[in-house]
Amino acid sequence: MGEGTYLLADVGGTNTRFALGTRHGVRSDTIMRFRNDDFSTFSDALRSYRAQHIDQPIHSAAMAVAGQIMGQCAKLTNRDWSFDAAKLAHELACGQVHFVNDMSGLARAIPVLSPAQTSKLQSPETPCQSNQSLVIGLGTGVNVSALLGVTALAAEIGHTTATTRMAQIVETALQGQQSGFVTIEDILSGRGLENLYQCLSGSALPAAEICQSYAQNAAAHKTCLLYGTLLAELIRELALHYLPRNGIYLSGSVARGILETPAKAQIINSLSQDHPMQATMDTMPLSLITDDAAALLGCLEIAKAGA
Question: How far is residue 87 from each of residues 43, 78, 199, 285, 292, measured CA to CA in Å?
């Protein structure tokens, strides 16, 4: 295990979070968030962060990127940012730079999350011992990562076609206006939530405002319930794919927002409906990761392990 200071980065489609860490943990006083729109490249954002911590030599770095990882290179899916490990290591004057998909980074954090960083949504009456977990990220995009022990599996679930059942739910709710709702990300990302609202109301509203206005806005209330039904369908499908008896963890800005609405009860009710595999479903805890910077913990685990 390497000694020294690690640079940690969680690079999402909208924001990038940086922090410094040691083998003892993430230094909370060094966590900073930057809007990606304020920078032309990732290196520009990195230099802005490093300018405020210039006195800290870096041993190695671990970066969770919301995009494809190709060996020593990475590319952000929803922005024209590219990453090269050798160039970044030279810029940081450090030994190594490790890349993982952002969901894989978050999955690596699961074993070290504190109770204060999660909120239980559903707990089984009889917990089942297992080393399989699943993170579902709902934000600018949609993706998942399964965790087996300390091994996180990368995926691109958001770009896959929505299930037949999800497509049927959308078609029924929108009465034939479902054009454009093809992939899981089309439906359950922040953009998807906004498009569902626009089809139901005929007007536009940002995802955060949809979640905040449900009590006064009938269309927002209806949209949140529809989103909850669709999310429950995805959770059920993924639960049976991965059997994460150690827990399913929802994460991301859209997840946090939607669970402040009646969609929360809708999700729980939908998941409790009778299903041929209901006994299996009932063994899986469901939680929300409430700490927006939790992926930095996963990055630290990766940096400490050197892989």
Answer: 10, 22, 45, 42, 28
Domain count within the chain: 2
57-95 pLDDT per residue, tens: 999 999 999 888 999 999 998 899 999 999 999 999 999
Q: Examine the domain organization and report whether 143 and 215 are in the same domain.
A: yes
Per the structure block, which two tokens stand in for 188?
A: 């359950």
Question: Nearest CA to 167 among 241, 223, 234?
Answer: 234
Do 246 and 134 share a domain, yes or no? yes
Say whether pTM exceeds 0.85: yes
Is the pLDDT at 307 greater than 50, yes or no? no
**Distances in whole angstroms, Cα of residue 30 to Cα of each of 7, 208, 292:** 10, 27, 15
Residue given tokens 């859209």 in the structure block: 254
Pairing of strands 151-153, 247-251: unpaired
- Residue 1 domain flag: no
Q: Which domain holds residue 86?
A: 6-109+293-305
